Amino acid sequence: MGIDTEETNLSGIRYSLSKRDSRVIWHPFTQHQIAPLPIPIVRGEGAYLFDIQGKRYLDLISSWWVNLYGHAHPEIARAIYQQAQRLEQVIFAGFTHEPAVELAETLLTILPPKFGKIFYSDNGSTAVEVALKMAYQYWRNQGELQRRRFIAFQGGYHGDTFGAMAVGKSSKFFDHFADCFFSVDFSPYPMTWWDDATIVQKEQAALTWLSDYLSCHASEIAALIIEPLVQGATGMRMCRPQFLQELECLAQRYQLLVIYDEVMTGFGRTGEFFACQKAKTFPDIICLAKGLTGGFLPLAVTVCREFIYQAFLREDFQGALAHSHSFTANPLGCAAGLASMRLLQDNYTSQQLKMIETVHQESLWQLVTRGLIEKPRYCGTIAAFALSQSIDYGSLHSQHWQSRFMEQGLLVRPLGNVIYLMPPYCIREEDLRAAYATIETVIKRG
Hints:
Blueprint: H1 2-24, E1 41-45, E2 48-51, E3 56-59, H2 62-65, H3 74-84, H4 98-110, E4 115-121, H5 124-141, E5 149-153, H6 162-167, E6 184-187, H7 199-217, E7 221-226, E8 230-231, E9 237-238, H8 241-253, E10 258-261, H9 275-279, E11 285-288, E12 300-305, H10 306-310, H11 331-344, H12 347-369, E13 374-379, E14 382-386, H13 396-407, E15 410-411, E16 418-421, H14 429-445
Parallel strand pairs: 3-15, 5-6, 5-7, 7-10, 10-11
Antiparallel strand pairs: 1-2, 2-3, 4-12, 8-9, 11-12, 13-14, 14-16
Helix pairs in contact: 3-11, 4-11, 7-8, 12-14
């Protein structure tokens, strides 16, 4: 009787907190008319989250792709605690501090060569906004005022602020705001997967479109932006390194600035520290966020080559980049970032990246041979596949699938009919393999 009473009390607490939430909170990317009440989470440990009733969920999406090393990692928590005892915040215009300088130095050490400066901001969207403003004003400072357009890729998603929405217009998330966007032209994107017999033709079609477009409009372009190797929010749509290499040759021929949005792909997600390293390409600007602090605090950076920075130097303020955030280079975030970078470079992380990729490859192959999935693909720690049925993003049908996974203790958030896995690097091999077995069971049941 005591256990039953305890369970009843816990259920009541969970329901109470969810109802309190529904009275005061508007959640992101949520249609509250049809969404179920949110699940109260009370703690995280490693690859797991625990709800108010003690049920645990294997976080297979790293809580929206941010928790690189799992939840409540003691080294990052310790770094934040120690920094909070010294300095929690200082205006970053006209001032600096050790964590900001050291983190910038560390990032420039592990990034490919040729990058010169780090610009701090708060999140992925603002990192992209900064990149777009850098590129646009770079040309204005050079006197090329006609460069007012951007090139992006169909299906790309770059964030939810207005500049980021403009270059992510084709993702279809932002149709309500289309009248507010600046001019962007969208190239075909050569998405590929295992045994894709048409990939060479798709890549050639995209490159031909770009070549034809640039032959007429190159002098009007401020920059080209792309999510390298993996388009995230529109379904983990992957392209080959070869395409990025050909794209780089085309950009160099027409003297284009190239922006890599590595907000998701940065910090080991593709199997290398950065997608540009895996692709063996060298963009002019890189946007980084999400895993930068290991999921502990909001922090982002926009990294540019030295020649871009030099174009903003003059004797008057008019040429400066007029962009800032109240918490730019927040010392606590920078301390978390430094701890995160130490973990990234640890041998254990390197071994885990290889293990996760191996399990993805072997487990996807099993699902394919059993005829359960379509268009399987993986890139480093990111794996994805499609269900045979059509499912709209955020629909009741989509929520049905998410609920089925949650019932089995798996945090999986479908992107339409695409199921993807992006686990934290601390996940145990046996847990990841067991998760794939559970996913197979759920798919079979439908």
